[in-house]
Amino acid sequence: MRTHRRLLTVTGLAAAALATAGLNTSAFAATTLSSGHVDVLDAEWDGADLHLHVHDEETGTEYEPADVTLSVPAAAKVANPGFGFLGSGSQIWLLPDTEAEADAAGVLFPGISTEHLTTGVFANDTVTYRLVSATRDGAATDDFSIYAGNGARWYDSNPNISTFKSRTFGVDTHNHANWAFEEAGTYQLTFRVQGTVGGVTESVTETYTVVVSS
Would the N or C end of the chain have less CB density within 10 A of its end CB? Predict the structure, then answer.
């Protein structure tokens, strides 16, 4: 069962306690998530601003994206299914679109959620998630994509194309697709969620760290 938005996330509460005690909050360790059902992109609206969190469905815990490292182990390697946008390598690292496959491989089951957004707030009852940028080991990369099981692309990090950068979702929905990485390395994925409230465009942008192990 999901828990609804708190005034502070788990890491935020710890940082607040440290600050109250006069300690250095920058020393607070980040959390690594490597398996289970995790909504990586989880949008929330507090009545004035949009927010993005990482929601661990296994524990009902919310994290700020900057406080989380998403780990993709070598066990995530599968045979390249042959879709052209996945490159010519024989294998890719895959976080699959079904929970059974993810659990069997012991890897993350990543979601894109608008479940915390209620109807009647955003125009057309939709918001748009945009992949703003993607890097691998500090350089722009075309090695990341999100696609449906039939090979229909949702997102593609290829910097040489302008398509497959954004997708619109209805509010109060839960969405899953395959998250694919073509090379090992440390990825920085920047996403923005945007919607219109009362004729005003609202948005928030966050960067997610994903470590893909060889």
Answer: N
pTM for the model: 0.87
| Contact predicate 45/116, CB 8 Å | yes
Structure-derived torsion over alpha carbons of residues 204, 37, 133, 116, reported in degrees to the nearest 10: -20
**Residues 190 and 132 sit within 8 Å (Cβ to Cβ):** yes
- The position carrying tokens 């957004």 is 117
Q: What separation in angstroms does the CA of 178 have from each of 10, 61, 110?
A: 28, 23, 8
Strands 31-33 and 68-72, how do they pair?
A: parallel
CB 39 within 8 A of CB 57: yes
CA angle at 194 for the pair 112 and 32, rounded to the nearest 5°: 40
Radius of gyration of the chain from its Cα atoms, rounded to whole angstroms: 17
Tell me the pLDDT tens digit for each residue of 105-158: 999 999 999 999 999 999 999 999 999 999 999 999 999 999 999 999 999 999
* Rounded Cα gap, residues 146 and 37, in angstroms: 16
d(C-alpha 212, C-alpha 214), whole Å: 7
